[in-house]
Amino acid sequence: MNLLGKMQDKEFWAYVRDAECYKPLVEKLKNEYTKNMEKGDLKCLKYSEFKLYWTTGERYKYEGSLNHIGGRMMASAILSLIYPEEQEYLDTLMDSLFAICDEYSWCLPAHHGALSKPDSARVDLNAATTAASLAEVYTLLGDRLEPLIKNRIVAELDRRVINTFYPATNYWWELRSYNWTAVCTGGVARAIMLVRPELMTEEFIQRTVTSMECYLKGFDSMGICYEGNGYWSYGFGYFVLYADMIRRFTEGRVDFFKREKVKKIACYYQKMFLSGDKGVSFADSQAELRYPIHLMHFLKNEYPDDVLVYDFKYSTWPACNIRSFGWFDENIMKNPANDEVSFEMYSPEAQWLVKRTSSYGFAAKGGDNEEFHNHNDVGSFIFAKDGEHVFTDPGAALYVKGYFVNSERYKFLESSSRSHSVPIINGVLQSFGKEFKAKGARYENGTFSLDIAGAYECEGLNSIIREFVLKESEVIVTDTFDYSGEGKIVDRIVTRFEPKALSEGELEVGKGSISFDPSLCELAVSSVQDSKNKTVWFIDFTLKQGVNKITYLMK
Questions:
Q1: Cβ distance 532 to 398 under 8 Å?
Q2: How far apart are CA 74 and CA 79, in angstroms?
Q3: pLDDT digit string (tens) for 354-379?
Q4: Which residues are CB-neighbours of 168 under 8 A, at least 6 positions away?
Q5: Angle (CA) 275 280 281, round 5°
Q6: I need a surface site. Which of 87, 131, 392, 397 has the fewest CB within 10 A?
């Protein structure tokens, strides 16, 4: 059974070797291989680095060593397919496979339960993706691997992943609605389909389908990914890998791509571009967008009338990803969609508004403060123009242990409402929890309005009606406060640019500006460093006594 499509065809790899369209990627792959080899022998996995997550919260040293081994394995595997006569690549591949089979655990330290007892057969994101990658290498190159290597792959897949998952009633992540479900279930299922297809009974197939249906529930009805754009690429990307393979395995009986919701999720990413490569950075996202070229090309071929693939300059084309070769479509790359076309999207369910005009891009959100990869950001917004975030959401913090512990997470600047364009009432920031949410959100006739007072635990605060009026070349923001307390109201706007005064009531911010009535407020500008040592600027408007309403014009 051909579960990997043309990637199992030796003639395809011969074509890759000589085709003009693949030359940049082949060259990039060779460079990646050379850089990896220049780092010396395969990295030794040290206990002193493994335990850092528990002692300091740091996770990148050990993960860096894992990535060195995994990167060498994938680079040498793909080069072995393109250049089957080069024994060096195959020898490097077998050394890498041997090292991966020797690893104490394929599970990341951050996902281990504790240091007190051996636990080398635990399935997490990395274990599942490692299993799937090894199974693919086994399928594509198994006839060229020496017997010990080939047999070890299957033995370690059985011991570490398949035998820990297959008999279980449910793994903890199996029926969740976020990226773990897609990545873990999908990775394990793909490994089983490739090396233990006899285990893919109807009952087990249905188990994986049920798991993926739970994952899809994590998106709203319009396909919005609450976790952030990077998690769309990651979680949905691994879902697509599974969905493509299970469709092949069942000869079309299980076809997730026929589902309307899957099509809507597939069309999500193209709507996140606000201006140039600057996009919607809600939750644990980044301001800069780079679409994964292999995934978008696959989805474009699946939904040719719906999915838009923008200019190649907005893409990533990772050389050590086998589907960068297998799913690449030269015709799509040569005919990009217009990334400057105007559009708007409003989701009553997620309470997201995203709009792009010829003058600017804008996004605002309501929702609650316990969404997946949550930030306390009810009512926050982003304003972009001329290829930059003028007013921003700083996105994800540096990933360390405390960032994923709720009691510590909101001490980080990025996840706290302190770094979002929302009010501060008597020094009170927004609170974490599903009950802290927006009310009355609606979008009518170009106006998005909502009451965000419910996001705060603040005595005397009855309502904060935030209203966005979206014009063709500007956005007007009006905040109206019903607050009977004695503390000050500070309306905060967040940017990455140092604001400069143009006049008493107007600030230049990057390539944009904000205008306000100086008689209503006192202006203060300050800056802080985020967890990645990048500067965040705060524009704070403190309402004067007796003022309960203020308006800003952004353009």
A1: yes
A2: 9
A3: 999 999 999 999 999 999 999 999 99
A4: none
A5: 125
A6: 87
Phi, psi of 177 (to 5 degrees): -125, 40
Measured CA to CA, the distance from residue 32 to residue 324 in angstroms comes to 14
Taking the domain 5-334, which CATH number applies? 1.50.10.100
Residue-wise pLDDT tens digits, 172-224: 899 999 999 999 999 999 999 999 999 999 999 999 999 999 999 999 999 99
Q: What percent of the chain has pLDDT over 70?
A: 100
AA letter at 258 = K
The per-residue pLDDT for range 447-503, each reduced to its tens digit, is 999 999 999 999 999 999 999 999 999 999 999 999 999 899 999 999 999 999 999
pLDDT per residue as tens digits for the range 417-435? 999 999 999 999 999 999 9
Query: What's the token pair of residue 293?
Result: 């070229």
Token output for 459: 């005595």
Residue type at 516 in one-letter notation: F
Q: Token digits for 344?
A: 């708007």
Q: What is the pLDDT of residues 444-459, one digit of tens each?
A: 999 999 999 999 999 9
pLDDT at 331 over 70: yes
Residue pair 378/452 in contact (Cβ under 8 Å)? The answer is yes
Expressed in angstroms, the distance from the first to the final Cα of the chain is 57
User: Is the pLDDT assigned to residue 150 strictly greater than 90?
Assistant: yes
Q: Which residues of the chain does CATH 2.70.98.70 include?
A: 343-554
pLDDT of residue 113: 77
- Determine whether 362 is exposed, middle or buried from the number of CB atoms within 10 Å of its CB (0-12, 13-18, 19+): buried
CB 107 within 8 A of CB 122: yes
Q: Is 500 helix (H, G, I), strand (E, B) or coil?
A: strand
Of the candidate CATH numbers 3.30.300.30, 2.70.98.70, 1.10.150.320, 2.60.40.10, the domain formed by 343-554 belongs to 2.70.98.70
Provide, for the chain, the percentages of residues in helix, strand and coil under a 3-state DSSP scheme, each rounded to the nearest 5: 40, 20, 35
What number of other Cβ atoms are within 10 A of residue 445's Cβ? 6
Classify the C-alpha dihedral 406-410-414-419 as positive or negative. Answer: positive
Please, where in the chain does CATH 1.50.10.100 lie?
5-334
| Predicted confidence band of residue 169 (pLDDT cuts 50, 70, 90) | low
Give one DSSP letter per residue of 32-57, joined into a string: HHHHHHHT-SPPP--HHHHTHHHHT-
Is there a contact between 413 and 419 (Cβ–Cβ < 8 Å)? Answer: yes
Which amino acid belongs to residue 137?
V
Q: What is the pLDDT of residue 167?
A: 76
Q: What value does the CA radius of gyration of the chain take, rounded to a whole number of Å?
A: 25
